[in-house]
Fold this sequence. Notes:
By secondary structure, this protein is an alpha+beta fold. The strands form three sheets. It has a four-stranded mixed sheet with strand order 1-4-5-8. It has three domains: 8-116, Butyryl-Coa Dehydrogenase, subunit A, domain 1 (Orthogonal Bundle), CATH 1.10.540; 121-229, Beta Barrel (Butyryl-CoA Dehydrogenase, subunit A, domain 2), CATH 2.40.110; 232-378, Butyryl-CoA Dehydrogenase, subunit A, domain 3 (Up-down Bundle). The protein is built from nine helices and ten strands. Strand 2 (140-144) and strand 3 form a beta hairpin. Bound molecules: flavin-adenine dinucleotide. Flavin-adenine dinucleotide binds at residues 122-126, 131-132, 156-158, 201, 209, 358, 361-362, 365, 367-368, 371, 388, 390-391. Residues 122-126, 131-132, 156-158, 201, 209, 358, 361-362, 365, 367-368, 371, 388, 390-391 line the site of flavin-adenine dinucleotide (FAD).
Amino acid sequence: MVDFTLTDEQKDLRELARDFATKEMRxxxxxxxxxxxxxxxxxxxxxxxxxxxxxxxxxxxxxxxxYLSGCLIEEELGWGCSGMGTxxxxxxxxxxxxxxxxxxxxxxxxxxxxxxxPKLASFxxxxxxxxxxxxxxxxxxxxxxxxxxxxxxxxxxTNGSHxxxxxxxxxxxxxxGHKGISAFVVPRDLDGVTVDKKEDKLGQRASNTAxxxxxxxxxxxxxxxxxxxxxxxxxxMTLDRTRPGVSASATGLARxxxxxxxxxxxxxxxxxxxxxxxxxxxxxIADMATKVHASRLLVWQSASLLxxxxxxxxxxxxxxxxxxxxxMEVTTDAVQxxxxxxxxxxxxxxxxxxxAKIFQLYEGTSQIQRLVIARETLMPSRAVEPAAATV
Length: 391
Ligand SMILES: Cc1cc2nc3c(=O)[nH]c(=O)nc-3n(C[C@H](O)[C@H](O)[C@H](O)COP(=O)(O)OP(=O)(O)OC[C@H]3O[C@@H](n4cnc5c(N)ncnc54)[C@H](O)[C@@H]3O)c2cc1C
């Protein structure tokens, strides 16, 4: 049986997030976008009401929510402002490898740090020369005694300027391609960790994106996550778990664009009638609505599989590819419905169109999602190790 009924608790969580997005995010979203303001105040409030760190288990101070509940929250935050939503949910990306591969001591130390105080963590996979093809990374971790020494540079790191610790991927075997990558927790305050460059972006300007460098950074060997040389697998398992949430955020953004376009189409009069009376506009609105609805269904399915303890690699790529591309299409159509006004900053939809673009790029570009979908469709037995993959 397929049942799309939410529990009362899930409905309450969605209501909490919707209320938060309406009262705390929407009133400042366009101003923060213009000024490229990092939303420290909004994030503090999100932490206080329990909208951050949603998947940290109760034993480490988190709410231990299921993945579907996390997606319900992310859709609302994406609706409020997807740039702020990215900032609020980024801890989830950084802490998932710790949840999967961390020792009990590591989990206690680093997960509790996020729940006891409104601290942040970032996920450091991408490098200037290694984006979609993470096997080309040049950051190294060299084992010396009971320590690893990390050297290298990671770019485009969300919340990088503000994080207290990083999940860092580095080569422990330079000649083994993706089979020579390991993952580590690296505290920000260690000697040799520097925050270098904050990016000035097209969209999601209320999120922080920075370059982080590691210069002879010494970390205890116990900060290794999982087994040595299993970091690539850990990154892929992480992305299976986080892509439904990112896709939910894209769905929320698209829903916002649909709502703005619908409202405008009913008010704007041309040729003596509201433009919503013209069939060309109606069909555009219909296609936008279908894309939002289908995105949500793919998100819910990919999250539900996780909640059942089942593998969701294919389904999370379906959700990410479709929701990201749909967000781009729906926000572009919203600008079209607004006509020339859609192009003007005073009106709301040009921000949404700029914000949408990143969904086709981060946590695996739309092309990389197609690679995963094609591989899983053509060779469903090849379970874990994709040839090209990405954050
Ligand atoms: C705002 C922002 C936030 C980000 N946050 C993080 C973060 O927190 N942590 C992190 O580690 N990274 C982060 N990233 C990095 C992001 O995940 C990468 O930008 C993304 O994976 C693409 O890598 P690239 O930019 O190097 O593009 P490339 O890999 O160079 O790709 C360029 C183009 O080639 C295409 N392409 C590449 N390989 C193939 C192929 N085999 N087949 C078909 N097409 C291909 C791509 O789809 C793309 O269109 C962020 C990026 C941005 C812009």
